[in-house]
Design a protein that fits this description.
The complex is a heterodimer of chains A (816) and B (147). Chain A has 816 residues and is of the alpha+beta class. In chain A, 46% of the residues lie in helices and 23% in strands. Chain A has 24 helices and 29 strands. In chain A, the strands form 7 sheets. Chain A has a 5-stranded antiparallel sheet with strand order 6-5-9-8-7. A 5-stranded antiparallel sheet of chain A has the order 11-10-14-13-12. Residues 1-11, 647-651, 691-695 and 808-816 of chain A have low confidence and may be disordered. Chain B has helices at residues 15-27, 43-49, 66-76, 91-100, 112-123, 131-141, and strands at 6-11, 31-37, 54-57, 81-86, 104-107, 128-129. The model of chain B has no long low-confidence stretch (mean pLDDT 89). By secondary structure, chain B is α/β, with parallel strands linked by helices. Chain B has a 6-stranded parallel sheet, with helices on both faces. Chain B is built from 6 helices and 6 strands, in the order βαβαβαβαβαβα. Classes of the chains: A alpha+beta (816), B alpha/beta (147). Chains A and B meet through helix 15, helix 16, helix 21 and helix 24 of A and helix 1, helix 4, strand 6 and helix 6 of B.
Amino acid sequence: MAPWLATTPAAGGVTEPAIVAGGVVLGVAALVLAAGWWVSARRYRRLAAEASHLRHCMEDLEKTGESLRKARSRQEAILESITDAFCALDRQWRFTYLNSQAEALFGMSRGELLGTVFWERYPYILGTVFEERFRSAVESGEAVHFEAQSPLTGRWYEVHAYPGESGLCVYGRDVTFRRRAEEELRESEGRFRTIADAAPVMIWMAEADGRVNYFNRRWTEFTGRSLQEELANWSESIHAEDRERKIRTYHEALGRQAAFSQQFRMRRADGAYRWVHETGVPRFSPGGMFLGFAGTAVDVTDLLDAEAARRETERHFRETLENLELIAVMLDADGTITFCNDCLLRLTGWRREEVIGRSWFAVFVHAPDRLEAEQAHRRAVRAEAVPAYYENSIMTRDGQRLLIAWNNTLLRDADGRPAGVTSLGVDITRQRWAEEQLIEHKSRLEQLVAERTAALTHTYEQLRLSERLVSIGTLAAGLGHDMNNLLLPIRMRVDSLESLPLPTEVREGLESIRQSAEYLQQLTNGLRALAQSPEDPASSPATELAAWWAEIRPMLRAALRRDVELVGEIPAGLPPVCAGRAGLTQAVLNLVSNAGDALGGPGQVRVWAELAEGGGHVRLGVTDNGPGMTPEVAKRAMEPFFTTKARGVGTGLGLSLVHGVVKRIGGSVRIDTMLGRGTTIVLELPIVRLAASPGGPEPQAVVSLADPRLATFAVTFLSTLGFLVRRNGVPDPDGATLWITDATDRSLEAARRFVERDSRRRVVAIGPYSEEWALIGARVVDTVGRPGALREALSETVSLWRETDRDRPSDPSVVC
Amino acid sequence: MTDRPIRVLCVDDNLMLSEALSLKLDVEDDIRCVGRLPSADGLVDWLREHETDVILLDVEMPGRDPFEALRQAVEEHPQVRTIILSAHLRDEYIDAAVASGAWGYVCKGDRADAIVQAVRKVSSGEFVLGPEVANHCRRSTGVSGGV
């Protein structure tokens, strides 16, 4: 559109139309001349030119403004189109512009926000990072970039603020989702590391170029190296022999971006190399980009060892099975034999070709059981209910029966249907026989044990009683010793006093003391007899009852209550009985004590003895006039532990003990009792028959010892034993039986002659051992350093001589 | 037998017994108790200082072992004759008595006269086994009522 000139009629001048935009006159450029002013043409042309220039300038300005408007419009369009929120603040922090994203962000429209002060509109921003950073930007004139969380909404924003002359331009973006994603990623990463570190296997990760960037804690714990060391050079832990292979495998997998697994030895923290099984799998991004490997490694050394051990065990087991005597047989569903091993053939005597293809039941089952067994087999296979174990008999070719223990497994065909049975059998014929024998023996053994237990109980009770008797014996021995020590001075004092001239009444008093002392002495002697062990050699197997009675009477008296009378009827002249004093004393003490207990009040206990008819025994009886026994009690009285006394008062072993003592010496015990008439226990005691007939010549001994003291000891000792002893003489060939001599050369020849004349003669030679003396049968006694040697030698020689003398067939006398 | 009484030494820790024994022996015309000792400790010294013919020696006393003291006494004074006077009847005591040089063994349970007789017998050179001891020996040898 072309500009044009117009002249106003009111005054003179030049007018230029203003810039027309789109056909619209925007203004007029005019040169107005006031009335009366005169303008030269030249000046007018110059003024017109200036007006034209002005018009052009105005037009340029209009163009520039138009460009600016367009630019601003474009800028606004751009700001509207960006996804960030944008707002502009002037120096007074008033909103001068904001785009629609900012409207959405602030929750208000432009109309509401433009011209308002930012801090007043959003006072909760004050004191936050936002305020701090905005002011910092304005003050420093430098742009800031930060991320902060809205104190109101809690959402995260990424902010760029650019200060300028007119204020501050702020770009903001809600990055809450990114922040959350990052946190989740961090958390996920943390979780992964936690899990990986807690994992029982070693884990590693590698990047696409193969560089390993992660090892879990298990790995570093295993190798004992730090994570940095492992990341720097993980192959150092690999066994030198496996390293190259391991690396090669890894790189091949890397090239193929494919999974791999391998085993190699890796050094553990303790320096030991362990076999490790490693598996690596490739990692790809969602877009299919190869990211590297994730791998695990497990210490399989123990597994490998276990596997090796298992293989070894399996080998052993296989070898054992091969060597075992096991029957193996396979039957089809009908019982036809499809397989059997050598063991079956060996045991039964059949050949393979004779049994394969035939019915098991026809060949091996006893005829009467055959049908039932075959039907049972078919039923079991059909029902798939084959018993896993059973025992039955099979027949050998020669008709013998074998007991077999079977282990069975159902066989199936290719379709899984039952097709037969495979069985492993053990011949238990001998084992079963042995078991039956064992049961029988066990039963017998149990019976024996019961019997022995009963016997042991009996023995134990007897032992208890014996221990009690030993205790009593010990007490009696100690008491006897002390009483002897006290009684001897009393008796001696009495003896001494009696030798003095004394008044009659004093003498009578002394006599009374003497009698009491003698009574006590007898009691003491009785105690000693009781104290003596029946096993004591001094407890002679021969006892003269009258002398024995005199000794023990006071003690028996003391064992009875005062209101019980003890009567002794032991005649002198009875032959000695073949019973030890100790045993006899214990037995009679028991009987007398029992009799006293049976009386239960005043009464009489009578101990008596008589020669039995035939003269072979002496009857020693203990009779009481108490209430007697019932037949039942009398019948059981000898049984061990049977007692009619209250528990704790009697052991029930008294009569049993008496019975034992008497039985041992070949005697017997009898009970005569009647209710209301009392009881008599009779001991039938065998008598001692003397080697030398009573009244016969005494055996003679000669003592020829240089030592006068030993000589007189030998004389006294042998005299005590009943020998007629001569001293210092040459043995009389016709009379002497024993010769006690010094072992000198001079007496050797005499001794030889002495014994040659009579084989029963004995020589005791005192001196060092000498073969010459031993050869003639002399008892050589070296008394040096052996205090009892002479006494023992004399005792043993006399005993030996008595044995020989007793065994003489011509001599009817027998010594007990 | 000489006119001189047999001089006896009683060695026993039971003073009542040795005193009574002394009285009993002194009653006899031919025997005189010349001393009493409560143990075997002073036995050898006594013999060195006193003329003694017979010792009545207990074997269970506090102090020195009587058998050991007896051996020394016999060695120094072989003419002295010793009788063991004991309340015990044991083979080992009898054997020890014989081995130690004793001339007799009498039990305290024997009658008092047996002790007096034993003193006389050993003094005259006989070995004495008292009645209880003799019975014991017979029983040990299995002899009863004759051989």
